[in-house]
User: Fold Laccase from Salvia splendens.
Amino acid sequence: MGTTKAMILQILVALLLHSGVIYSYATTYYNFEVVETPYSRLCSNKTIMTVNGQFPGPTIYVTEGETIVVVVANKARQNITIHWHGVKQPRYPWSDGPEYITQCPIRPGTNFSQKIEFSDEIGTLWWHAHSDWSRATVHGAVIIHPKKKDNYPFPVPHAEIPIILGEWWKNDVQEVLSEFLENGGEPNISDAFLINGQPGDLYPCSRKDTLKITVDHGKRYLIRVINAVMNTIMFLKIGGHNVTVVGTDGAYLKPFTSDYIAISPGQTIDFLLLANQKSQNYYMAVGPYSVAGTFDNTTTTALLEYRTTPSTPSPSSPPLPTLPESNNTLASADFTRKLKTLTLENRPINVPLNPSTKLFFTLSMNTLPCPNSTCLGPFGDRFSSSINNLTFDQPNISILEAYYKGINGVYRGDFPGRPPLAFNYTEASVPRELWVPANGTKVRYLDYNSTVEIVFQGTNTVTGVDHPMHLHGYSFYVVGSGFGDFDEKTDPGSYNLVDPPLMNTIAVPVNGWTTIRFRADNPGVWLLHCHLERHLSWGMMMVFITKNGKSPSTQMDPPPPDFPRC
Ligand code: C2O
Ligand code: CU
Assistant:
């Protein structure tokens, strides 16, 4: 083809791309039908929302840097949105998904074609619903392979096994949600945890469906764990085996060995399992880590089975591995502190050294007065939660749409960079007058390409608890963490600015602090929130708006034609 012809063709394609008519020559399309599916677990039946009738939902396999289109058709009776957890969506917040933040819901009977653009993500991420509590059953894995097949910075695994941890209520999850929002107390605790949709051997009516992972002796397996649990950090342990942790949140890690993993809701952990033990059966056990309130303290199991000749039958109930105690804060924090980015030539580590924007965000449980004297929260009040003492009020048109069109009155731009009042955040009993938050729909603007530091400070208002904080649109470096009140004179001395882990969800330890840094190079509207679903429901979220840069390649793209408007 002549150069002019090629150029004309290129311009044509660029125009079509821009208008959203087509996305690229060879884009892969996926169909996501959101449907209501009858499901039976723990000796009882109910109807759940699923994608394509599957629970967990379909796994999306992509190659690093690929762009795909997922056509979401809502055939259920409830609104839905789909979020691509950990996918940065450069300059394109339109497909990000959080309801009333970047879009209005996909209403029953309507469709939305979501363009998903992968950039430097590698390894394991996931997708999930981002409206009400529907993410309990509407979620699935996203697996991003290296460009050259098998080009891993670790021994090539014989096979890859996604493990999705879930949480199950016998009741309808939307009823669980409306009930606790109404009575002001905590949500009803769940009835089981799940591994790939199965509760395992220790719950009623579940044994025969226990997930079996069959391995060959001497082979190496890449296990990709996603914590899709709603309300608790989880411990996972495999009997008789140590594992080698190699990745988290769509990025590689310096490999380290451990006999358990700790993983917070929203997070992913990739590890290698070498099947080099005696050929018999072993349990994989998964249980909660939680220090606050009541929670589901049960254990879910899967079986690791070595393929053996029929003449050597192995016992079907091997010993259960001992998980860390459910209140073992150090077991969670110590594991997380072992995560360090793997140094690779083609994946430079760029930690901002002198952040231009320094933010200090307190994360608090709160109480609000009860409107009718029947509330089940502390002292008869209602639970709430906040960032910098602000409980987020959901708007009824999306912040992205309001920002893009310049609609006034939807949000305010004055989200505070520090809490309104400094106090001893982690003292044993915080005075009750500090328990009550303010509320509002506020965002914080970030200049394009500014370098941002956020110190998250957990507080002991009402009760201290770990908060897995998740940022949309970015990965961030976790440069430090500790217990107690953050000391801005001494604590920065302990920062790791050399090889900190690159993550999108980080558990801020109970009555402690965590510092993250990132470069605001992705213009758009991006949600920051706690990934414990009850805290999100109680308002622990805020929004960043990263402004456009000067050149067109540093500015937000326009919305697609079928964008669900409000
Ligand atoms: Cu995994 Cu805002 O979510
Ligand atoms: Cu939280």
Remarks:
- The first strand starts at residue 28 and ends at 41.
- The pocket of copper (II) ion (ligand 2) is lined by residues 467, 530, 532, 535, 540 (CB under 6 Å).
